[in-house]
TrEMBL record:
Protein name in UniProt: Amine oxidase domain-containing protein
Pfam families, A to Z: Amino_oxidase
InterPro entries noted in UniProt: Amino_oxidase, FAD/NAD-bd_sf
GO molecular function, one term: oxidoreductase activity
Gene3D superfamilies: 3.90.660.50, FAD/NAD(P)-binding domain
Annotated source species: Methanimicrococcus stummii
Domain of life (superkingdom): Archaea
Length: 447
C-alpha cells in the first residue's frame, strides 16, 4: 500500500498503539492517535508517588533487555533510551532444606543456572534429554498444558513450583494454563534475545520517546478523546466517530483489543453488538471471529509496590522468582538498575502475582496473602507498602492468555488490532506486543 496522503487512525495510546503510530508516521502516513484518558501510555506509564516512580501496570522491565525485539524496534525508530541488563538473568529463592515448603526455616538465593543442583540425578538427566530433544527438533511442542506435558517425564515438586512461579510472573498464568508450544517459544526467544533488563527512568522513558518521534513526523495525539464508533461502509473500515464527529481514514488501528473494537463497529449504519451479530449470522468468517471473541479469556494479576531501606537483591540482579510463597510469583528491584526511581537511600521493589479469574470476588483476601508473602520473604527488612494494583477486566494483564492470541487481522479490511490481545508467539508481555506490532506492520505494508 502506498502511503502518500494516506490517513491512519490509532485508537488508544498504549505501547502497541504508539509503536505502530510512530512507525506508520515514519513511513509517511498521516497519523492521529485518539486516547480517551488524559494519560498517555496505557499500562506502560510512570506514576510519581512521594519521590518513587511507580507505574500504571508494567514493572519498568523489558523482558529481553538490550537486544530484544522492543529495544531493536526502538533503536530503528531513533529512540533515546537505556536498559540495564539483569546479571544473572534471575535469582530463585529456595528453602535451605529441600523438604521444606516455605521460607520460615531459612532460605538461600541462587542463580537460575544453579537450580539444577536442587534436582535428583534422574531429573537432571531428563531435563538435559528434553532440552536436547527440543533443540534437535525430535520433541515437538503441542497445545497441551506445559505442566501436563512435562509431568509425563519428570515428577518433582520443586520444578512444579518454579514453573508456576515463572509463568505467574511472566504471563499471569499457571504452568498448565499456558501451552507447551507457547512455553517452548518463550524459551527459544530467551535463547535468541537474552534475559530481562530495567529501563532507566522507567516505562515513561519509552512513552516520551515514542511521543517525540511521532510528533517529529507530523503525527498527533488527542487525549480525552474517546472513539465511540468505528465506521464500516461497503465492507471495510472507513473511519471513526469522536465527540459525535465522523473522521475518515484509510486505516484504523485498535490498541483497545479485539472485543472492544468489535463492540463499537457501526456497520452500514447499524451500531455495536447488533451490527456484529448481524454480520456473524450472515457470514461464516464473521461467525468464526465472534466465536473466538466469546472464548477469549483475559489474564488477571496483582502488583504490590513496596520500599525498603536496604537493597534486597544481589548487585546486578533485578529479578527474583519466589516459588515457595502463597501468592507472589516474582519481584523486580528496579533501583538496582536505576537508583533515581526512588528517593535517595530508598529501594523500590515491585512484586507480581497471578490472580485466578474465579478469585476476583475474593480480591481483598488475595491482596492480604500477597502482603503476608512480603513479610515472610523479608522478615528482617524495614519495608513500606506504597501501592497495590489489581489488573483485570478492561484493564487486565493481558487481554488474552498467552498463546491464545489470534493475531492482528479482523474480518473487516482496514481494521487491524495491536496490543496485548494480539501478541506474537512466545512474546512475554511488552515483547509480545512488539512482535504483534511487527506482524501488523507487515500486513499493512502488503495490503
Amino acid at each position: 500500500m502506498t502511503t502518500e496522503n494516506k490517513k491512519a487512525i490509532v485508537i488508544g495510546s498504549g505501547l502497541g498503539g504508539l509503536l505502530t503510530a510512530a512507525q506508520l508516521a515514519k513511513d509517511g502516513w498521516n497519523v492521529d492517535v485518539y486516547e480517551r484518558l488524559a494519560l498517555i501510555g496505557g499500562r506502560f506509564a510512570n506514576i510519581e508517588y512521594n519521590g518513587y516512580q511507580l507505574s500504571t501496570g508494567a514493572l519498568h522491565m523489558v523482558p529481553h533487555g538490550t537486544d530484544g525485539p522492543l529495544a531493536r524496534m526502538l533503536r530503528a525508530l531513533g529512540a533515546d533510551f537505556e536498559i540495564v541488563q539483569s546479571t544473572p538473568m534471575a535469582t530463585v529463592r529456595m528453602p535451605k532444606n529441600a523438604e521444606e515448603t516455605d521460607y520460615k526455616n531459612g532460605y538461600e538465593d541462587i542463580s537460575y543456572l544453579d537450580f539444577k543442583k536442587h534436582l535428583t540425578s534422574k531429573n537432571k538427566l531428563m531435563m538435559v534429554l528434553l532440552t536436547l530433544g527440543f533443540k534437535a527438533g525430535i520433541i515437538r511442542p503441542t497445545k497441551v498444558g506445559f505442566k501436563t506435558w512435562y509431568s509425563k517425564y519428570i515428577h518433582d515438586d520443586r520444578i512444579d513450583r518454579c514453573a508456576d512461579s515463572f509463568t505467574g510472573w511472566a504471563l499471569s498464568t499457571t504452568a498448565d494454563e499456558v501451552t507447551t508450544r507457547e512455553v517452548f517459544k518463550i524459551f527459544n526467544n530467551v535463547y535468541t534475545y537474552g534475559g530481562p533488563g530495567i529501563l532507566k527512568g522507567g516505562c515513561q522513558t519509552v512513552i516520551d520517546e515514542l511521543v517525540r518521534i511521532l510528533s517529529s513526523y507530523g503525527g498527533t495525539i488527542h487525549t480525552k478523546s474517546e472513539v465511540t464508533k468505528i465506521v464500516v461502509k461497503d465492507g471495510k473500515a472507513t473511519g471513526v466517530v469522536v465527540g459525535g464527529k465522523e473522521i475518515s481514514a484509510d486505516l484504523v488501528i485498535s490498541d483497545i483489543g479485539h472485543k472492544e473494537a468489535w463492540e463499537i463497529c457501526e456497520i452500514d449504519g447499524v451500531e455495536g453488538e447488533s451490527a456484529s451479530h448481524v454480520l456473524a449470522l450472515s457470514s461464516p468468517v464473521f461467525k468464526e471471529y465472534e466465536d473466538k471473541l466469546a472464548e477469549m479469556k483475559p489474564s488477571a494479576g496483582l502488583k504490590i509496590c513496596f520500599a525498603s531501606d536496604e537493597q534486597i537483591l544481589p548487585d546486578g540482579c533485578s529479578l527474583m522468582l519466589t516459588p515457595y510463597t502463597r501468592r507472589i510469583n516474582g519481584l523486580n528491584e528496579v533501583t538496582i538498575a536505576d537508583p533515581n526511581l526512588a528517593p535517595p537511600g530508598k529501594h523500590l521493589i515491585m512484586c507480581h502475582q497471578r490472580t485466578a479469574l474465579d478469585k476476583l470476588d475474593e480480591i481483598d483476601e488475595e491482596i492480604e496473602l500477597g502482603l503476608e508473602d512480603v513479610k515472610d520473604l523479608f522478615p528482617d527488612k524495614n519495608v513500606e507498602i506504597l501501592m497495590v494494583q489489581v489488573h483485570h477486566g478492561r484493564w487486565p494483564v493481558n487481554r488474552a492468555f498467552s498463546g491464545t492470541d489470534f493475531g492482528n487481522k479482523t474480518p473487516i479490511p482496514n481494521l487491524i488490532v495491536v496490543g496485548d490481545g494480539a501478541k506474537g508467539e512466545g512474546g512475554i508481555e511488552i515483547e509480545g506486543i512488539t512482535f504483534g506490532v511487527r506482524d501488523a506492520l507487515k500486513i499493512i505494508k502488503n495490503q
